[in-house]
Amino acid sequence: GLKKKEVNVLCLGLDNSGKTTIINQLKPPNHSNHLGPLSEEWKHVSQTQAQEIVPTIGFNIEKFKSSSLSFTVFDMSGQSRYRNLWEHYYKESHAIIFVIDSSDKLRMVVAKEELDTLLNHEDIRSKRIPVLFFANKIDLQDAMSSVKVSQMLCLENIKDKPWHICASNAIKGEGLQEGLDWLQDHLK
Ligand code: GTP
Ligand code: MG
């Protein structure tokens, strides 16, 4: 058949924001890579997928396919001691997924600092790559709205890249499809 376009997606954000949980939801429940992230299958929430998740050490590479794209996702650790690994993958990335814990008010300023550092990096600054934000953990009682998260991160200041923010509950898989659809549209 036709060769799918190959895209590298960097998944970034502070530790505990839900990056790995999101990526796991994009994988088919049987963990094989034969089914694409946008198939009906991926919406299925398996309890094991949620329970297996542990803090990422360094990073993990996940591959999956949609109807038109072949994704290689770099699921980076958000722990401060590993954040210096992020920049090594900026050059080859075609898109960024930036995940925020909407309930973590105390560290919103840290998330903003990391985002600003990312956007000002020489390997990212000049590229018009799409940036998808997940305002994750909206199920938690003290979670901020995606509008509030967007304001706290000053996303309206991003003028040189297409960006989009989605509220999500990664455990239930809510909001992920909308985000991925947007990303796909901007990677064609
Ligand atoms: P690092 O690998 O350390 O950078 O963290 P991470 O961003 O990959 O976070 P991870 O996916 O490991 O999730 C951290 C914790 O948050 C886990 O206990 C998840 O079950 C939980 N979690 C993830 N998404 C959600 C969500 O939408 N709502 C709630 N309530 N918990 C979530
Ligand atoms: Mg992780």
Explain this structure.
The protein is built from 6 helices and 6 strands. The chain is an alpha/beta fold and 188 residues long. The protein has a single domain (5-185), classed as P-loop containing nucleotide triphosphate hydrolases (Rossmann fold, 3-Layer(aba) Sandwich), CATH 3.40.50. The chain has a 6-stranded mixed beta sheet, sandwiched between helices. Strand 5, helix 5 (146-152) and strand 6 (163-168) form a beta-alpha-beta unit. The longest helix is centred in the middle third of the chain and has 13 residues, at 108-120. It is globular, with a radius of gyration of 15 Å. It binds guanosine-5'-triphosphate and magnesium ion. Magnesium ion binds next to helix 1.
Bound small molecules, deduplicated: guanosine-5'-triphosphate, magnesium ion
Provide the residue-averaged pLDDT: 90
CATH class placement: Alpha Beta
CATH topology: Rossmann fold
* SSE topology string: EHHEEEHHEHEH
Poorly predicted spans = 31-36, 41-48
Total of DSSP H or I helical runs spanning 4+ residues: 6
Radius of gyration: 15 Å
Distance between the termini: 18 Å
How many beta-strand runs? 6
CATH-level-2 architecture: 3-Layer(aba) Sandwich
Q: Find the CATH superfamily.
A: P-loop containing nucleotide triphosphate hydrolases
Q: Helix- and strand-based class?
A: alpha/beta
Overall body shape: globular
Q: What is the total domain count?
A: 1
Helix content estimate: 25-40%
